[in-house]
Amino acid sequence: MTTSLLISTRKGLFVAEAKGKSYAIDRGHFVGDNLSLAMADPRDGTWYAALDHGHFGVKLHRSDDRGATWEEIATPAYPPQPEGDVQKNYFGLELKWSTSLVWSLAPALDAEGALWCGTIPGGLFRSEDRGASWQLVEPLWFHPDRSKWGGGGRDHAGIHSICVDPRDPKTVAVAVSTGGIWRTRDAGASWTNTAHGMRAEYVPPELVHDGNSQDVHCLVQCAATPTTFWVQHHNGIFVSTDDMATWTELEHAEPSRFGFAVVVDPADPNTAWFVPAIKDEKRIPVDGKIVVTRTRDGGKTFDVLSRGLPDAFAYDLVYRHAFARASDGTLAFGSTTGNLFVSNDDGESWAVVSNYLPPVYAVAFAG
Amino acid sequence: MPTVVFTQNLRRHIDCPDRAVEADTVAAALAEVFEANPRLRSYVLDDQGALRHHMLVFVDGEPITDRAKLSDPVRSTSELYVMQALSGG
Fold first, then answer.
1. Which of A277, A332, B20, B72 has CA atoms 20 to 30 A from the CA of A326?
2. A99 at B interface, C-beta within 8 A
3. Out of A56, A59, A80, closest to residue B48 by CB
4. Which residues of B touch A99 (CB under 8 A)?
């Protein structure tokens, strides 16, 4: 079985196949439609695609034959909102119980065919039947702290990262923009915020270290050393080596600590990659030059990797789901400008797969 | 009988031919269509059963006023058009 790269864009899902040391785009699905992400389930090879039709809402599709055919499946839907209930988020915006985006999708490893799905406006859902039906994870949705969540770039909060613990599949950490990190140790029955100790520089002083105020852009967990987590945060990079008991902010990642995506080496907790940008008010590469930063020593130092990447007048941003690593170590990232790059030497050098894609929202490898 | 007509743009995603229904409100008219075509419901209504934010329903040339409960009346000769709102375009 070859490895495919699933590229979710503003105008379709494109599939690139391994070709020598690089990848070549081979076909498109849902061409013209907007995809927020796609996921290949390593357990059974099923592909899932999350479409955002705008006027017509978000929809999930599933393929059992690597994209040859697709079937629309259920989309996570919220239960009836209590009559007369007017809910507002932390910033005072009215919040309707209705899925506006599928923002994360992951295998739930404690049961065959089970899935986790994170949405905007902040609900986590679980399916026991490969997406044929979904149930809202009520203990998190009804947690009183949810009233302290707010939108990060969108009107309402959303769950964008799901880390199923390799030690125990009933232990799951999810990250919320904006609402910090929440972990369950009982498959969703109870939840604890584990973002305390991070630092948010965009809130009043009283909230700087509050767990719910942390705008985590992306959370990843090392498979071989699952006590290590890496976070690309709105105002920096954080690492925890003690199972999220404490967080360390890494203040010296040049050229910038701002970004959305992070990838961790599944075999080495000290190695992680980022794609930095000028911080939030601009969101473009520093000096118009796309680089990848990599640490191999747990964040003490960062290498700036640029070979093969545009070195001037480039204004690409790499979103949180648009950077991925294959099981053979290949790295890939796609940008808002429609560029797609791969590296098979740990990021030292990069090859162009395409300069002509629509804006890329997510990339994922399918083994 | 009232007739329900769906925008061509929606037909790109899901088959939804014109359909005559027996109903005296927009809610009842759409419910009858969705009973025969359950997947269509989520393309038109949100999770709470309200008209999606960027969708419109016209009854005899007038946009409906009750987007939450769809209680606007329809007559036996009414034509309902389910459209995209330009606001979402």
1. A277
2. yes
3. A80
4. 47
Asked if the structure places residue A58 within a domain, the reply is no
Partners of B42 on chain A (C-beta within 8 Å) are 57, 59, 75, 77
Return the ∠ at Cα A18 (arms to A7 and A217), rounded to 5°: 35
- Split at pLDDT 50, 70, 90, the class of B88 is low
Q: What is the pLDDT of residues A121-163, one digit of tens each?
A: 999 999 999 999 999 999 999 999 999 999 888 889 999 999 9
Do B84 and A78 count as a contact with CB atoms less than 8 A apart? Answer: no
Residue B68 CB-density burial (10 A; 0-12 exposed, 13-18 middle, 19+ buried): exposed
Q: Which two tokens stand for residue B41?
A: 């419901």
Residue A59 maps to a domain = no
Spell out which residues of chain B touch residue A97, defining contact as CB-CB under 8 Å: 47-48
Q: How far apart are CA A51 and CA A59, in angstroms?
A: 5
Interface pTM (ipTM) of the complex?
A: 0.92
The CATH number for A249's domain is 2.130.10.10
Handedness of CA B39, B44, B48, B52 (dihedral sign): positive
Q: Determine the residue of chain B that is closest to A96 in CA distance.
A: B48
pLDDT digits (tens, 9 = 90+) for A237-284: 999 999 999 999 999 899 999 999 999 999 999 999 999 999 888 999
Residue A39 lies in a domain: no
Using CA atoms, how far apart are residues A107 and A109, in angstroms rounded to an integer?
Answer: 6
Sign of the CA dihedral with A16 first, then A39, A193, and A296 last: negative
Tally of domains in chain A = 1
Please indicate whether, in this complex, the C-beta atoms of B48 and A55 are within 8 angstroms of each other: no
Asked whether residue A362 is assigned to any structural domain, the reply reads no
Q: Sketch out chain B's domains with CATH numbers.
A: 3-88 (3.10.20.30)
Label residue A1 by pLDDT band (50, 70, 90). Answer: low
Residues 66 through 95 of chain A touching chain B, CB cutoff 8 Å: 72, 75, 77-78, 80-81
